[in-house]
Amino acid sequence: MTTPEYIQRGGDLVMAQPLELKDATMYSFLVGADLDALTKICDAQLNAVTGGATVYKPMLPMATVVCADIAKSYSLTPPDSTKGWMAERDFGIWVPLVAGTMDGGTFKPDRLVWYLPYVFVDNVAAMVTGRDVFGFFKQTATLTMPATPTTEGAFTADALVIQTFSPDAQAQTLQLLEVTSTAGVPSPGGGWTSPVKAIEALLGDLKRLFFDVVDTALLPLSDWKMVETLLKDAVEGLVPMVFLKQYRDATDPGRACYQAVIEAPAKLQAWHDGGLCHPHDVVITPCDSHPIVAECGLAGPTVRSELGFWTRIDFVMEAGQVIAQRP
Prior knowledge:
The protein is an alpha+beta fold.
C-alpha cells in the first residue's frame, strides 16, 4: 500500500527515524510479576491486534523498572539530522516477551521482544516522537535520578494522574513512582566491559529469582537453555521492542482510526560501562488512571528489587516494521 508523503509543518517536534541516542545511562530494577496479569496485557494490547498470526507471551514472571538518562538524542535522517539534538530522561516498565506462532495448539517461540506498557519522559519532543513514529506509550513527567551510579539519591517520577475516578475528580500531579536504594547509592561501581560480560553476570540470579520459582510448564520457554540463548542473542545484536500504535477515531470515540502492532530494534553502537546495583525498593502510588500494580501483576504498591544493574551505552533506535494492522 502506498502511503502519502509526510507533510512538514513549523513547530513539528516529531523527529524522523532512525534516532541515535548517545551516552545513555540506564538503570534496570527487576521485580517479580504475575504471569496471568502479564498474559492479559499481551492478549488485550497485542494479540487482539495480530489475530493470532503472531502471538506474544510473557517470557518470565518478571517486569523491569528502567530509569534512563540520555545525554544526547538526534535524528539520523535529513533534514531532521541537521536541526539539532536534545537530552532526555525516560522511565518505564519493561516486560520481556516471547514472540512466536501457534502450531496445532503448540506455541513455537521465535524471538525475544520487550513491551513497555508504561513510559514517562521529561520533554514533549521525546513524547510525540515516541508515540507518533513507533507507538511508545509515552507520557510527560518530572523525572529525578542520581547524577552517577555511585551518587546518593532516589529515582522519582511525578506525573499527571487521577487517583480515584469520579465525575468530581480533578487530575493532579503526584509522585507516581519512587525507587530508592537500600545502600543510599544505586551501585557499588562498574566494571562490566561488554554486554556479554553483563549477561553472564546476571544469568544465575535471573534463573534463581524468576525461572526456578515457577512451574516451567506455564512458560513459553520451559527449558532454561532456550531462555539463556534468547537473552544472549539479544544483547549481542539487536534488542527488539514491540509497540501498540494507535490513534482514537475523530468521529467515533470507541474506535481507533489507526491500530497496529509495530516492532523496532534498538541497535547497540558502543558499550562504555556497567555493573550491578544494590537492592532497591520500588514504591508506586495507587491511581485509577495508572493501574501499574494490577496490570503488571506486581505483589503490591511496594516491592523489592533484589537484582538490578546499570549500563552506559550508545544505541540507535532503528526504523520499525508493521507486524499486524487492523483496517
